[in-house]
Structure formats: C-alpha cells, structure tokens
Amino acid sequence: MTKKAKNAWRIGVLGLLVASIPLGIFWHRAQPRFDPEAMLDVSVWLKIISHVREDAVGDSVWEAASGSGFLVSSQSCEVWTSHHVIANAAVIEVYPRRWPGSSGIPASIVNSNPRTDIAILRMQNCDGIREARLGDSETLRPGDEVYAVGNPLGLNPNSISRGIVSHTNRIANGALPYLQTDAVITQGNSGGALFNRNGEVVGVSTATVANRNGNNTGISYALPINLVKEEIRLLHSGPPSWGDAGINDIATLLTPDEASLFRVPTGEAALILTETPTEGPGAGKLHDRDVIYQMDDTPITTAIQAFRFISGHFPNEPVVFHLIRDGEAKQVSITLADGWKAGETPAAEYYTGHLGMTVEMWNEEDPVQPRFDTPVITRVQSLGPAHMAYIASSQKTVARNGPLMFSLQLDIKTVTGAVYDGRYYPVNAVDTLERLASAAFDANDALLLEIETWTRSTPMGLEEPFQRRSTLFYKVTPALTTASTPALTANGEDLTRKDDEQMAARQVAAFESF
After folding, report:
1. Which of 44, 162, 399, 412 gives 20 to 30 Å between its CA and that of 439?
2. More confidently predicted of 349 and 145
3. Do the Cβ atoms of 46 and 24 come closer than 8 Å?
4. Catalytic residues, which ones?
C-alpha cells in the first residue's frame, strides 16, 4: 500500500470515529438513567410487633419483625407491602428514609390477601415522602436489570441490591406466577419494591429460596406489579376473595403414562383424588379415584395449574370438571366456595397497674426457681405499655429427663432500675416499680426501665448458674388498660371508678419512699 493510500485510510477511519461521537452521545442520553436516590426516597421500612400469645408452658410470647414497602399515594398515604409481613401485627410503624425519630409513623391495615401475599397500609401522615412510579411488568424480559430496595435482616434500612430477571413466569409455592431474580432479597426485604432501571416499580419482593441448611441460594421471587395492581383494585372493593373447590389436600398427580391407564383422552397428565370430599363444594359430587383431566376448556396437567385455574375464579362461579370415573368419562359442575376465611383479630388484654406486665420477686430459697434480688418479668400483656416498648417476658420450655417431663427456664428478665425525671432509681421490690410507674402516669411522663437478661451458657445445663447476658434500657409510657375494663365491684361499690377518682390523692407523696 502506498503512502498516499495509507494516509487516506487513516483519514477515513478518523472521520468515521469523529462521526460516531454524536451517535454515541445520543445513545448514551437515550439510555435510562439509574437514579438510586429516587428509589430510596419512595421506599419505607416497617417495624412490627405481634399480639401476645400464651405458649404451652404459659409464657407470654410475642415477636418483633421488620419488613419493607413503598408509598404509592402521597394523598391517601397508602403503602403497599407483603401480607406475611403484617399478618400478625398488633402495631405497625413506618420509617421513611432519613426519618429522625426512634418511633416511626403509625400505620393501619386497609386490607390484605394471604393468597397473593399483598397488603395495603395507610400511614397517619406521609409529608415529604415521594410516591413511587409503577411500571409494566409485562415488558420485562430475562436478562433485564432490576434493583431490590429494602431492609435486609431488619438491620440495614435503605439498602439496594442489583441483579437481573432470570424468569418472568416462575411458579413456586401456590399458583401465582413470580418474577425470578438473582438480586439479593433476604428477610426484611419482603414487601419492598423491585425497580427497573427507569426507577419504576415492576415487582414486590416476596421470598427467597434457601437450601436444606437454610442458606440463601441466590434465587429470589417477586410478584409482578401488573398482578399486584389488579389485586390492589380488588382489595379496595372489599375483603379478599377467591374460588375454592375443596380438593387442595386430596389431589395428587398422575404422569401421562399413569393417566393413560385410566384412559384419559387427552394423552396428558391428570389429577386423581385420593379421598371423597365430605364437605365443601365437592361433597356429594366428587369421589375418591376420580381422575380430573380438564376444567371447563382448560386441560389440567399439574396440581398447581388446577389450583391456579380455580382460584382465578370468584366464589359462586360454576366450573365444569371433566373426569374419568370407573372407566367412564363424566362432566360434573362444581359451584366454587370462598377460599378466604376471615380470622379473629386478637384483642388487647386487660392489665392492672400501669406497665402491662407482671413482675414477681424470686428471693426465696427454692431448689428449682433461681433467686434474684430484683423483680422478675413473668408475663407481658398484649398491647400494654411494656408490649408497646418491645419488652418480652422471661421464657421457659418443657424438657425431658428420661421418662420425666419438667419445666426448664430458658432465660430470666429482671427489672433492676428505672430512670424518671432525670434520676436513676434502683428497683429492688415490686412496690418500688409500681410507685414509679404510677407517678409517671400521673405526670403523663415516661419511664426508662433498665432490664437485665440472664441465661445459662448451655440451655440444658441444669446445674449451671444463670449468668447475666445483657443489660438494655426500654422507654415505657405508663397507661391504663386499652382493653375493656372489667367491672370491679365490692359490696355494690364501683372500685374502678373510685380508683380513678383517687389516683391523684394516692400519688401525692409518690417519691417519699424512694
């Protein structure tokens, strides 16, 4: 190649590069701009405390949990999250990004659906929180980049993890289609938004897949936002509802080879009933060993497909079951029942005193019960002040020693002190704690309780002494019971009313004995 030809070639290449610069700039500007700040600004994390329940050994047990969500309306202060996050909630607090307080914004449940695992919350206020932009999950394709925002493990609010969509119609547990992603989703992320690169919500983080050892496999699931929007529309119109044929627990799969032995005409897999329904919509119409191969015009080849088809209908809708019974093809019309059963919401418990917890002195010599010089917390009442302050009671369990069963104390929680009006008071008697709580109640003030937790180094080490594991402080606002107060009478006199009237008089010298 001559020198002139080489120069012409170089000039041509250089011109091509220069000409491509505007195209590159245009392409770069046309790409969606990744804006993590916008994703964080619309996301919130949730703090939950459940109602108190009594376990097998009589201990009061409650759980604190965390989850995530996102604001969808700055006018109604509506937040979307997962049903399982708030399923047993007694108290819900919402924490927006950069929230300065130790207590969050109270929220209430508008409606929720356990089948689709979606819940609607309403915050008391949402000033300054940006509302999310909802995308279209139908546009997602495997390989698309997504971002999961939430509060992993309840310890890392405002966290973002990045991944890709690996499947857009994954059937996991139940009959719902999920988005499958490798974006890291852990406990605490549930209910949080899954964003596309445009910052639009395309899914609601729901679950992660663990192996047999409980370790994260790197596979997570999110409900597609289009499904969520449809479910929210239904939840706004009333209680959750879906069809149920009553065969969920009595149907099992036949492979195509197995189904062919029943002369199933489709040549595909089918379901066989292992029992005769004795109640519900199938009672008197379906029998054991019925082989179901079609519902209406839809072939049924898996149990999940059948349940998905049925739950996609509303209660009182008829569905025609095509089946083989005793070698003959039959059609049976089943009118679906309602698959949702409303549970009872636990009520607040009545409590005496002002702290909503029972304390006892364990200072007597006892071969089984250890000795403590400060009050031991033996019970916490649901929705009482101690419960609202995240205080738990001492816990025990039932253990076995050969043929003998006995109660084993797992941990002990004692109240060792209280801070009131800027002063620390040691607590070495139940009366001391009660007087402090009563005085704080009269002054409409709070107490800071010092609580020690004691455990053995090995839980089953019966001969081992209890050792102090931690000392923590809890802010408690004393209050009267939030449950309906029972009638406390003696000789026809209303003691409850009298007690209220004399409250101030009884506490005039509250601190004189401290």
Report:
1. 412
2. 145
3. no
4. 84, 117, 190
